[in-house]
Amino acid sequence: MSEISNPTVASALSEPRWVRWSLILIGLAYLSLVVLLPLAAIFTEALRKGVGALHEVFADDATYSAIILTLTVAAITVPLNLVFGVAAAWAIAKFEFPGKSLLITFIDLPFSVSPVVSGLIFVLLFGAQGLFGPWLAANDIKIIFALPGIVLATTFVTLPFIARELIPLMQEQGTAEEEAALTLGASGLRAFITVTLPNIRWALLYGVLLCNARAMGEFGAVAVVSGHIRGLTNTMPLHVEILYNEYNFVGAFAVAALLALLALVTLGAKSLLEWRYGDALAGKGRH
Amino acid sequence: MTGIAVRGVAKDFAGTRALDGIDLDIRPGELLALLGPSGSGKTTLLRSIAGLEPLTAGTIHFGGEDATGLRVQDRKVGFVFQHYALFRHMTVAENIAYGLTVRPRAERPARQEILRRVDELLDLVQLPGIGKRFPGQLSGGQRQRVALARALAVEPRVLLLDEPFGALDAQVRKDLRRWLRDIHQRTGHTTVFVTHDQEEAVELADRVAILNRGRVEQVGSPDDVLDHPANAFVAGFVGQAVRLDVTVEDGQVRAGPQTLATAPPGARPGPAALFLRNRDLAVGSAEGAALTGTITGIARSAASRRLEIRLAEGLPPIEAEVGLDFAAARGDVVGLTLATLRLFPRDPEVGGT
Fold it and tell me: Chain B closest CA to A190's CA: distance in Å?
């Protein structure tokens, strides 16, 4: 839709050439300043002292455990939100029930709340001085300043991604196909697996990728609940900050570069999916 | 062949009554149309028979067996949805085979048998060789046929179709009507279809059930409902009639200052609704005619001319059909005779069409 293919129409609708070129240049300059330049800076800073220095950074146990922790958190958080997201979207898109709009509002809440506040909520609930703190301490369960707290905070922050991706699609698709499956004798579960899931698979993958990107990159909420214990509760974004504050610029930028690389891979996969997904929808989708 | 008995069926949607005590007998093997304006509850009734809507009250029997509490999966109905609801990610063959492949292993036919059945059904719906295509690659009429094949694959006890031709253009619709009639004759399924198109209903169905505001107004053959409408609603809804609000007085039917005709014997004096179809009016010379009107419009159709005639100021125009050789111009005054009087007492509560 954004492209105008007919040349006569294009010239009739376009601004003069110089206006077009200045607009394009302004756009490019803005993009370079805000996105490309910082990204390039991360990689050049990381490589400033050569590949050998990089090796040293990643040989460090603290860095290694930060990477493992980040991957662990993402590996727990994404499946949790996958299940919740599909269940919530299914309920919202296919059924009418009281409190539906309230549920939608709750799903959106993590988008509008500052991540720091999100982290703080869990400290207030599960921290030493928190609501459940004494009970947790008495039973020797550690949530805050430990893996469960980081997972909780990350799950909260990334809660909307998959559900939000699925709800509009599932609402548009309606319930007729599922009803058709039921009249043909399929059980509810069977209809879900053979009809609903295939219809949402691209959107689902897309949501998982977005959720994963955010889960690996989350800083604010995790910073509050993690306690920054080196080698134990430091995720990659937190580790970047620590290294930077210690004037270990190569280390900081090296970890940052790895994080950026993960994000770039995710984005690449996302674009690939968008291309496939759009194709799937346009080609044999809607009727 | 299975008949369906609907008894006292009611359905509420969040406080509004969609079905209000429906009693309906659908005979084994018949093709029945549920006809009504939008919001009359016809689709809700169809979905209730299929088990897609839980009932608020009443029972539904399939051939003597109480199906009221039966899950939709166990009712063995073939349902064709208004927008076909084909599984968009499956091929046509997979769509048709779906009802067979989801059966428990013990009841599932062998793979070869399923493939054979799919081919057989594609032949039946006159779409051989399109099994590998996806629904998105088919035209509306083809999708409709595939949807029907899919519904027939499970050998349903009854076949239910929701506005089967609603989303198709006029020519395809005509072809498919004839074709559905054909299929029905060959397979003999008890078939119920929903439509808001009275022409479609009377042309296709053995019997027509006319619904209005969640109630059945009349059930009968096309002849019954066209020639002997049970009430003012049916008279207004089928047969493309113009409604005139009239008064029956001193044995005469009057519309405003005009006397239209002599009232039929037994007509109740008082306000009444008169339904005029364009073939009910004989148009002739104004000379000596008891009733005259002025031509206000002429429209041509393939085999006739349709005249729009005004009887008197303040009355809605009525329509008459005349032969092509009838000489008439706008503004001419013509004489009119009412051949059939479809007269119903006007009850202000029920009067609406």
Answer: 8
Query: Measured between CA atoms, how close is B136 to chain A, in angstroms?
Result: 4
CA–CA dist A93, A163 (Å, integer): 10
Residue A287, chain B, CB below 8 Å: the answer is: yes
In this structure, the number of other CB atoms found within 10 A of the CB of residue B195 comes to: 22
Cross-chain CB nearest to B102 (options A186, A285, A286): A186
Mean per-residue pLDDT of chain A: 84
Instruction: Please report residues of A whose CB lies closer than 8 A to that of B98.
Output: 181, 184, 186, 194
Q: Dump pLDDT digits (tens) for A68-87.
A: 889 999 999 999 999 999 99
Q: Which of B98, B134, B136 shows the shortest C-beta gap to A181? A: B98
**Sorting pLDDT into bands at 50, 70 and 90, what band is A12?**
low
B85 touches A: beta carbon within 8 Å: yes
A278 part of contact set with chain B, CB < 8 Å: no
Q: How far is CA A284 from CA A105, A151, B91, B138, in A?
A: 33, 39, 10, 10
Sort out which chain B residues have CB atoms less than 8 A from A199's CB and list them.
88-89
Helix, strand or coil for residue B215? strand
Query: A145: left (phi > 0), else alpha (psi -120 to 50), else beta?
Result: left
Is the Cβ–Cβ distance between B159 and B152 less than 8 Å?
A: yes
Inter-chain touch A284–B98, beta carbons under 8 Å: no
Q: How many CB atoms lie within 10 A of CB A227?
A: 16
Cα separation, B292 vs B260, whole angstroms: 9
pLDDT < 70 stretches in chain B: 347-353
Decide if B272 contacts B345 (C-beta within 8 A).
yes
Cα atoms in the 13 Å half-sphere on the side-chain side of A250:
13
Model pLDDT, residue B353: 41
User: Could you report the per-residue pLDDT of B60-112, keeping only the tens digit for each?
Assistant: 999 889 999 899 999 999 999 998 999 999 999 999 999 999 998 888 999 99
Q: Where does chain B have alpha helices with state H?
A: 42-50, 92-101, 111-124, 140-153, 170-187, 198-204, 222-227, 232-237
Give the residue among B242, B205, B219, B206 at the shortest CA–CA distance from B342.
Answer: B242
Distance from the B163 Cα atom to the nearest Cα atom in chain A, whole angstroms: 14
Helix (H) or strand (E) holding A21: helix A17-31
Best of A96, A183, A196, A284 to mutate (most B CBs within 10 Å, chain B): A183
Quote the crossing angle between the two packed helices A61-94 and A100-112, to the nearest 10°: 160
Percent of chain A surpassing pLDDT 70: 92
B148 touches chain A (CB under 8 A): no
Task: In whole angstroms, give the CA distance from residue B197 to residue B201.
Answer: 6
User: Which residues from A are below 8 Å from B83, CB to CB?
Assistant: 176, 287
- Using alpha carbons, select from B6, B104, B108 the residue that is nearest to residue B50: B6
State the Cα–Cα distance between residues B344 and B340, nearest whole angstrom.
Answer: 13
What are the b/e assignments for B299-314, b being 16+ CB within 10 Å? eeeeebbebbbebeee
Residue A285: per-residue pLDDT: 42
